[in-house]
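Lab notes, practical 5.
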Amino acid sequence: MADISVNVTSSLTNSERRVSRNWTLTYFQQRLEAITGIPPDDQQVLLFHNTVSTENSDLTAQNRANRDSVTLSMLNVQEGARIHVNDTRPESELKDLEDDSNTKFFELDDAEYEKRSDTVRRWKQENKLGRFAPEYEQKKAEVKHLNEEKAKELTIGSRFRTVNDPVGERRGTIRYVGKVLEIDADNTWCGVEFDEPVGKNNGSIKGVYYFHAKPSYGGFLKPQQIETGDFPEQSLFSDDDEL
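Output from the prediction step:
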């Protein structure tokens, strides 16, 4: 799916950006933070279908429950759209933001943390939230199934780019598809060789080689993190004005 150009605006910014319609709303908001300075949880993201339209839809309000899975394509974000980001933080809260680089934080090891009754983990356990929720295993199984189905579409030697990647888009070539017991025995992984030294290994995990690459050029990704296609090699220093 080809990238599109959109206009990103806020009270302080106005710029044209290239985006992928395969990005999830969660990942898109992470990228918007880098442009607007507004944290994702404090963003109101409005979609205008062009730069002169006054009608809009509130993407954040309409997709709070599924922003990890809904993509820009599903949200009908088209070429030439305008994305306006409002900061929902009260003005007083913004004034209270301070540099905490010199602040000393209290830390507990995991064993001591587990003993406490006033922690977020204990609260989640008691309220059956997160990994303690009854539906957690079901969702985990659904994600596993989606990755396995995606893996069937991938072929060794294909060019790819990463999607919903917290470190930004990376490109390379698929070198392996299958189980990686050194990571876990249940899930399917893609061994990839990146075009640039943006990986974590050389194609091996704990001394076991699944493919060979130069140091820092290899990596293992979930199939859902990969989009295959005609994605030529890019320089780390290229300036393509992408979001």
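Observations recorded by the TA: The domain at 3-97 is CATH 3.10.20.90 (Ubiquitin-like (UB roll)). The longest strand covers residues 184-194.
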